[in-house]
Amino acid sequence: MMISRETDARENTRAAADSGASSATREITAWFRGYLRRHPVTALETVGGQFVLGVRALQYLCVDIATGRFAFAEFVRQAAFMASAAVLPTIFVSLPIGVTLSIQFGLLAGQVGATSLAGAASGLAVIRQGAPMVAALLMAAAVGSAICADLGSRKIRDELDAMEVMGVSVVRRLVVPRLAAAVVVGVSLTGVVCFVGFLAGYLFNVFVQSGAPGSFVATFASFATVSDLVLTLFKAVVYGAIVAVVACEKGLSTKGGPAGVANSVNSTVVASILLLMTVNVGVTQLSMILLPRQGL
Questions:
Q1: pLDDT of 201 over the 60 cut
Q2: pLDDT tens-digit map of 145-159
Q3: What confidence tier does 246 reach under pLDDT thresholds 50, 70, 90?
Q4: If you count Cβ atoms within 10 Å of the first and of the last residue's Cβ in the chain, which end, N or C, has fewer?
């Protein structure tokens, strides 16, 4: 009798476990299918919202500058804050970037017997690709997260709704100055990265790799052109605008209380970096097609 009861208990336990496992499997399957249905729509809504916000911000920026309604004081405050938050990390990241490029191109140039071209290769790599991307990534990490946290906290406190009720445009009052400040600071940081990265590569090549200082500078001056700097500054403007628009859109669409602000900040950094990498590939490929050049 006792054996029969124990057998029944084991069977009931096994049946309950099988039922729980099948229920969990159904829930996971339902969530996965729902995610596949929701994700494309949500992604399109996010990209569409960012595009519309960017167009409206650029429109208001041009109109406000032309009519003298631009919030210059807010622009100065945001630019000072962005510069203070990003300039030191950018410098500290530029140093190893310049040294790493100098090491790699120095080794490659030594293998092919063209050590005199190490300066041109490392310097052009810093200017063309390293400077705008390093500045943009630091902007996304340090500045974009701060912008999103600021606007997100205002959103959950209903400050933005109160501004709209009073007839104050949130885009014109908050987004436009941040967009202009991000572009200006992004261009400035790109210049800093160009200088620091090239200087770090030069010092490492001369004092560590025993390179010739004159050869390093001469080869760089021979191959570098004004179009390289123009392309770099164009990238800096585009990347700064992307960081500002993504951060503002995520901040303005925050919901769910303090946890929602944290989620928005996290998604801002991830989305900005992914978008920056994608745009960088497109801009680089277009520049190579439209502006071909010989040599390095």
A1: yes
A2: 999 999 999 999 888
A3: very high
A4: N
Closest among 45, 26, 46 to 34, alpha carbons compared: 26
Sequence-distant (6+) residues with CB within 8 A of 83 are 185, 188, 189
CB proximity list for 207: less than 8 A, separation 6 or greater? none
Which stretches of the chain are DSSP H helices? Answer: 2-67, 72-111, 118-125, 131-138, 145-156, 159-165, 170, 176-207, 213-223, 226-252, 257-290
d(CA 65, CA 62): 5
Which of 18-32, 129-143, 171-185 is predicted with the least confidence, judged by mean pLDDT?
18-32
Q: How many CA atoms lie within 13 A of 23 on its CB side?
A: 6
Residue 21 pLDDT exceeds 70: no
